[in-house]
Amino acid sequence: MPGNPSSKLHIVTEPQTQIVSMKGICKSYGDRKILDGVNFDVAPGEKVALIGPSGSGKTTILRLAIGLIRPDEGTICVDGRYMWHEETASGLKPAGERNARVTRRALGMVFQHFNLFPHMTALENVREPLVHALDLPRAESDARAIDLLRQVGLGEHMTKRPSQLSGGQQQRVAIARSLALRPKVMLFDEVTSALDPELVGEVLRVVRDLAQASDMSMLIVTHEISFAADIADRVLMFDQGKIIEDGPPAQVLKNPRNARTKQFLRAIIER
Amino acid sequence: MSSFQWDWSYAWSTVPLLLEGIRITIIATFFGTIIAFVLGLVWTLIRIAAIPVVSPAVTLVVQFLRGTPFLIQLFFLFYVLPTWGVTFSPLATGIIGLGLFNSAQTSEIYRAGIEDIPVGQWEASLVLGLPIRRVWLGVVLPQSIYSVLPVLGNVVISMFKETSVLSTITVFELTAQGMDVGFQYFRFIEPLTLVGVMYFIISYIAAIGTRHLEARNARQS
User: Fold this and answer.
1) What SS3 string covers chain A?
2) Which DSSP state fits B136?
3) What is the pLDDT of residue B35?
4) DSSP 3-state assignment of B50?
5) Closest-CA residue of chain B to A181
6) Stretch A181-201: mean pLDDT, rounded?
């Protein structure tokens, strides 16, 4: 990534008009090209669903957005700050993990496999970033953590470890935990894919309530098409490392223009 | 014929001395364990930190400690170090030797435990903005040490048995006491049998403990 030749081409920033701005993103693993020159912006408060077949690059987009991985090419800007670049008088200069850490504060992420800390209770999980990332006093952290757990309907289970909770409950703890830092952008990476079918509803309900009640921006990778139609302002269809369709759900999901999108949606509905 | 007969009154008379030996054996095991557990963690963290020169040097030290006999390491500490002006009591030398030798084993164990931490734990820590110090102390090490506790328990048990080697550098632990009593009366069957029984009872109880830890870990995963 250092010495990325394309970085100088994107000096122009549009402060605060877009909360997330990804330009010219390429990412490969070995010979496999996962993302091939992807561009897209997210407006503040916008809820964007990312759909597409597995391996199409949608999860990689989320991991790039929060800086878990670095793009081979392109720039990522979140809440007015670049993830892997510094703005200087002479243009953009490559920057490292220290810079990414600061940019990352604007984001939260919920993972497919929850990634809760198994040796901590639900309350301790949610409190962890408050105490150790925000350096809040213990009492205030506890109050906020308890509040968040109640918000996701887990007021009764605060002292339980993840192993004592159902998958749906664990994922709700994970959602509460990622909300603790009050991110401006939330990323949901197939948050119901690892759940038993009967537990999907409770998690989707929490995400839906969140989408309706908050002004956070959301990027939601999902295979739940009706859920996407319900909460998204915009749907991006990924295929083979590119965005092949981008528009409101009424268009992309109900009336797709692209033949590949039609085929994908048909396959999902018949499942 | 008499030498094959078990003399209960003689056997009984050796017990106080043997108990004194157990005391030393347990002291050596206890402090050896502390050194081995702490030093092993230090080795592991330095190796993972990949510091130029330092980390390869530590890797070499660990390989060396694993690749040479404990007895030779002990003799080196006891006979060679004093010629360089470094002198410890026999017991202290034995404890340092035990700790050093076993730190190489614990280092490998910690490393395996840390490598077993799912990548999702690191990713969650990163996106939550936890400082790297907290990630290690609050997330990674508690889980990895917990998961390798049974294996560490086995290290303690083998260290407990290895303390008998300290008899060669004049530490009056259990084996040396048994031998000493035997030489005084020229009867070895009673003291050495009792010595064996005492080692067995303690390590058997400890083994039950580690099996307990294993069962608990299996339940939770």
Assistant:
1) CCCCHHHHHHCCCCCCCCCEEEEEEEEEECCEEEEEEEEEEECCCCEEEEECCCCCCHHHHHHHHCCCCCCCEEEEEECCEECCEEEECCEEEECCHHHHHHHHCCEEEECCCCCCCCCCCHHHHHHHHHHHCCCCCHHHHHHHHHHHHHHCCCHHHCCCCHHHCCHHHHHHHHHHHHHCCCCCEEEEECCCCCCCHHHHHHHHHHHHHHHHHCCCEEEEECCCHHHHHHHCCEEEEEECCEEEEEECHHHHCCCCCCHHHHHHHHHHHHC
2) I
3) 98
4) coil
5) B128
6) 93
Is residue A136 within 8 A of residue A144, CB to CB? The reply is yes
ipTM of the complex: 0.89
Residue of B121, B127, B149 to mutate, testing the A interface (most A Cβ within 10 Å of its Cβ): B127
Q: Tell me which residue in B124, B127, B130 faces A132 most closely, judged by beta carbons.
A: B130
Residue B7 sits in which domain range?
Answer: 2-220
Split into its structural domains, chain B has a count of: 1
pLDDT greater than 70 at residue A3: no
Contacts of B131 in chain A (CB under 8 A): 132-133
pTM of the model: 0.86
> What is the C-alpha separation between A77 and A83, in angstroms, rounded?
6
From the candidates A111, A112, A115, A191, which should be mutated to test the interface with B, based on the most B CB atoms within 10 A?
A115
Q: Could you report the per-residue pLDDT of A116-169, keeping only the tens digit for each?
A: 999 999 999 999 999 999 999 999 999 999 999 999 999 999 999 999 999 999
Question: What pLDDT, on a 0 to 100 scale, did the predictor assign at position A6?
Answer: 46
Determine the Cα–Cα distance for residues A252 and A247; give it in Å rounded to an integer. 6
Interchain pair A133, B128: CB under 8 A = yes
Choose, out of B119, B128, B216, the residue to mutate when testing the contact with A (most A CBs < 10 Å).
B128
The residue type at A36: D
Pairing of strands A32-42, A20-29: antiparallel
How far is it, in rounded angstroms, from Cα A81 to Cα A113? 29
Interface of B with A (CB under 8 A): 118, 120-121, 123-124, 126-131, 134, 138-139, 142-143, 146, 220
State whether A111 and B128 contact (CB < 8 Å). Answer: no
What are B89-98's pLDDT values in tens digits? Answer: 999 999 999 9
Please report, for the domain that includes residue B135, its CATH number. Answer: 1.10.3720.10
Nearest to B127 among A109, A116, A119 (CB): A109
